Amino acid sequence: MRLFFFAIALLVLLALAGETLGTYILAGGALLGTAIGLAFSRALQNIVSGVYILVARHFRVGDYIRMGDSEGIDLEITLNYTRILRPDHTRQYIPNSMSVDSKMTNFRVRVDDYFDERGLEYHKGIFDIDDDEDSRFDDVLDRIKFLTKGDEIFRYTFDIEIERTCSKPTVQTFFTSICEKWKDTFILPPEFFFWGTTATTITYRFALISQDAKDIFTKGQDFKAELSEYPT
Asked: Quick check: 125 pLDDT over 50?
């Protein structure tokens, strides 16, 4: 569209400059053709990407997703764009071609798949835990019995970087205390683990589990805010 208006403006300038009619018609036609070609190419790319998204179903309406630097609840998937609700309650329209090309994380997971990945067996709505499993799961069985096989939850993860100059034991103790404080807020207590390092920072990854994606906007953001006050 911008190229279209640029072509029109160029035609006017050429006419005012006294160029021959054939010259500026030829130049304007070339630019206009380029503009139309680019617009059609982008539209076609978005449509093809939209069909792929709808068929592949890597994510669907209601999922909490992260695409590149953007994240939020998927509100709509069309042939041209994907519309998400961001944590600041603004709506973002992401072209489908960008959605396909970006690194995408879907935080939705089936509850039985999640516990199976953690080495727990699922039977008739109750998770059978071996005696040698982490004892902390014993404390939350009553809170997860209401979930049935096939139910879906959201396991949301995010990273926090601390400076290498910080005391790691002090920071880890602080993180543990915050997770303990929030243990009754989510389906399972939040957890964190070492994720990586750079020359100047250490990264910890946090995970929280909720049955409602909107809780990530509210409770999840409050949880993040408390963690950000770690001692330096």
From this structure: no
